[in-house]
Amino acid sequence: MDSEPVQRREATADEAKAVAHPLRIRILQVLRGETLTNKEIAERLGSTPGATLHHLQLLTEHGFTAAEPVRAGARNAREIPYRATGKTLGLTFNPALPESALVGPAILESALENYRLAPESGRHSETSVTLYLSDAQRSDFQGRLSALISEYAGTRHGEGVQKYGFFSAMYRAGVSEPGNAAPVSETPAASGMPADGDLREP
After folding, report:
1. Which residues of the chain have pLDDT under 70?
2. CA distance 166 to 69
3. Residue 48's pLDDT is what?
4. Distance (Å, rounded) from C-alpha 35 to C-alpha 121?
5. Long-range Cβ contacts of 151-158 (<8 Å, 24+ apart)
6. I need a surface site. Which of 1, 111, 119, 136 has the fewest CB within 10 A?
7. In a 10 Å sphere around its CB, with 0-12 CB exposed, 13-18 middle and 19+ buried, how is residue 92 labelled?
């Protein structure tokens, strides 16, 4: 049975500011399908607990992450695990708004950092291509790609399942041609974030 499509709304200025930082986006991505403590998040991201805690608290304040019940850690220390709430799945980020315009560059920076830190054996199928599309073709291309991502985004833990990161960006090529108007740049977050990239986390 098909699941109901997610109803999206435009992010508020405060919501956009809350995710418009590369480290906060990486926190959401590392929490996809997992619950981790602040210390564990810092270790995964190569950061410090102090730095990640600041960003984690801001994400939690705006509902992008949530604290789970306290659990006993090593030497009976009290630990607070966090999870991603999936809030970004219901938001779009309009690049015409100053706060939302910061989301696209943050996605790009976080994606490049994640890729840089990935082992070479875990990197797959890098592609760069130039396409000539009408507005209708571009919309169709983006819609089909988004549908494909959504189809696989629901996959959870299971036998033989590994966690992968995926990033895509579409932009107006900065090459002027005779008879054509000067190209206008487009922000990769125009229709929503990539997690979560379109930022889709759970």
Report:
1. 1-6, 74, 154, 175-202
2. 31
3. 93
4. 26
5. 153/195, 153/200, 154/3, 156/33, 157/33
6. 1
7. middle
Residues 6+ apart with CB under 8 A from 1: none
Alpha-carbon span 148 to 21, nearest angstrom: 26
Q: Quote the CA–CA distance of 62 and 32 in Å, as a whole number.
A: 17
Q: Tokens 């976080």 correspond to what residue?
A: 110
Chain position carrying tokens 């604290």? 67
Write out the two tokens for 195: 């997690």
Q: Which two tokens stand for residue 115?
A: 């890729």
What is the reported pLDDT for 177?
52
Residues 6 or more apart in contact with residue 182 via CB below 8 angstroms: 176
46-82 exposure pattern, b = at least 16 Cβ within 10 A, e = fewer: ebeeeebeebbebbeebebbeeeeeeeeeeeeeeebb
Q: CA angle, corner 28, sides to 65 and 14, nearest 5?
A: 65
| Beta strand pairing call for 65-67 and 36-37 | unpaired
| Helix or strand run (H / E) with residue 75 | none
SS3 89: helix
Q: Is there a contact between 166 and 123 (Cβ–Cβ < 8 Å)?
A: no
